[in-house]
Write the C-alpha cells for this entry.
Amino acid sequence: MKDLSHKKILIVGAAGGIGSAIARRLANAGTFLILADHDTKRLKTIANELSRSKGRFMTNIIDLQNPKEIERLAESLKKNGPKIDWLIHVAGAIGKAESIAQQSPTSITTMWAVNFVSAIYLTKYMSALLRKNGGIVNISSTAGIWPNSRFAIYSASKAALNNFSQATAKDFASTGRSCICICPGPTNTAMRERIAHDAKKHQNPDVVAREIEKIVNGSSTLRNGDVVVIRDNKKKLVSRL
Ligand SMILES: NC(=O)c1ccc[n+]([C@@H]2O[C@H](COP(=O)([O-])OP(=O)(O)OC[C@H]3O[C@@H](n4cnc5c(N)ncnc54)[C@H](OP(=O)(O)O)[C@@H]3O)[C@@H](O)[C@H]2O)c1
C-alpha cells in the first residue's frame, strides 16, 4: 500500500453514505481528512468511528447553501495550514419523486444550491488552496446523463455539474490540477432508501470510495476532464476532453 500520510483531503458531504465510505477508506490509507457536512450528529458519529481506528481528521460544520460559509471555510483552511491535495464534493440533495408542478420552491432551491451552485463556490474559493497534482472530484449522478422522470431538478442540477466539471478541467489544464466527475448509479445509502426503498439491492458506496482512493494514490486511469459512470460495480468512461 502506498504511503498517503502526506496527503490532505477535504470531503464535503462527509456524513452521508458515500461521503463516509470515502472517509473510512482514506483514513485507513493514512491521509489527513477535513470532514465537512451540515449534519452535526452524523458527522460526530463518523468522527467517533475514525477516532477509534486512529484516523487523522478535523471536522467542520457547513451549510453549502450559503456561499459565505464556503468562503469562511476556505479562509480558515488557508490560516490553519496551507495546501490541500484533493477536494471531494460528495454532498447532494434529491428531494421527493415529484412532477415540477408538485415540487415546492424550497425543494427546488435546495437541490439546485447543494448539487450545483455549491460546486461553483467550492471551486471559486478552494482552487487556490489545491496542490499541483491534486484537484477536485465532483460526485454527480447517472441522472445527470440520463435524466429521470419525477426528478427533473435533481437530474438537471447534476447535468449542470457534469458540464461545470469539464469547464473547470479546461481551466485547470495549465495548472497541473485536475477536475474529475464521477456519476454513481443507484447506491446503497440513505438517499437511495428515501426515494426507492430498494437500496440494499444496489452497489455498496465503497465501490465509489475505492475509485477515490485510486485517484488520491495516483493509480486511477481517470484524468483531468473525465466524466465517468460507476454503476452496478462497473466503471465506464462517458466523456473525455
Ligand atoms: N445513493 C445513490 O443512489 C446515489 C446515486 C447517484 C448519485 N448520488 C450522489 O452521491 C452523492 C452522495 O450521496 P449519498 O447517497 O451518500 O447521499 P447522502 O447519504 O444523503 O449524503 C449526502 C450528504 O450531503 C449532506 N448535505 C446535504 N445538504 C447539505 C448542505 N446544504 N450542506 C452540507 N451538507 C449537505 C447530507 O446531509 P443530510 O442528509 O442531513 O441532508 C449528507 O450528509 C450525492 O451527491 C448524490 O446526489 C447518490
